[in-house]
Structures are given as C-alpha cells and as structure tokens.
Amino acid sequence: MHLSGAVLLLTFLVPPAWALDAYGGAPTREPSAGVSPFMIFLTVVFCCVSYHVAVQIPSGLLGAWLGRNRGAGAMYACVVVVAGVLTAALSWGVLETDRLAEILPVWADLMARGSLGMAAYVWMSLRLT
Asked: If pLDDT is split at 50, 70 and 90, which confidence band does 33 have?
C-alpha cells in the first residue's frame, strides 16, 4: 500500500483542475480576501491522503481478494471496479449534489490518478506472492 500511496502522491504533482481554478482566484498579497495558496496546497494534500485511506486501501485489499488466483488482468479489473464504486460514493458524499455533471469530472480525475497507484499495488502484490 505504501507504493500505491507514493504513486498517487506523485500524480498530484500535476494539480487537479479544481486546484488550478482556486489558485487563479487566490490573492497573493491580501491575506484577508479569499483562500491563501498555502491552504489550497494543503487541501490537495488532504485530498490525496483521504483518497488513499478511503478508496485505495480498501479497494486494493478487496479487489486483490476478489481477483485472487485469476491473474494480473482480472485482479486489476477487480481492484478498479471496487475503486470506481468507492470513488463514486466518496465524490457524491463530499460534493453533496445529485448532478452528474458536477460529480463526473471529479470522479474521472480521481480514478485516473488512483488507477496508476492501484496498478503499482497489483504489480507489487503479484511480485511478492
């Protein structure tokens, strides 16, 4: 799990679109107006850590258990399906909206980042067994 978390953290070197929008609107010299760029950075780090704990670890463990004795492709597919469901639930719960147009970009961004980390987890778990 540490490898998948490290890969996930590396994917956040390319900031999410919502963070770039927030950076563009953040004041640089006026601390009383808006949100500071440092707080936006902390939000991105918190997003990464919470996604790792709430989605990556459970989906890696459950998906690896569901895909055991079936090969790398089946194990990765199980992990990604479980992660997709957990990411959808997390996105829907955090954004508190029923509009798919607001949830889908966040879901797709997190799934693209998370799938790379989960591929590293599947690769590592197959190497260790």
From this structure: low
Nearest Cα to Cα of residue 80 among 54, 117, 51, 105: 117
Cβ neighbours of residue 125 under 8 Å, at least 6 residues apart?
60, 64, 75
The amino acid occupying position 60 is G
Smallest CA-to-CA distance from 76 within 55, 60, 88 is with 60
Secondary structure letter of residue 69 according to DSSP: T
pTM score above 0.85? no
Mean pLDDT of the region 13-32: 69
Nearest one of 119, 126, 91 to 6, comparing CA atoms = 119
Task: Find, among 122, 116, 125, 85, the residue nearest to 8 by Cα.
Answer: 116
Contacts of 31 (CB under 8 A, 6+ apart): none
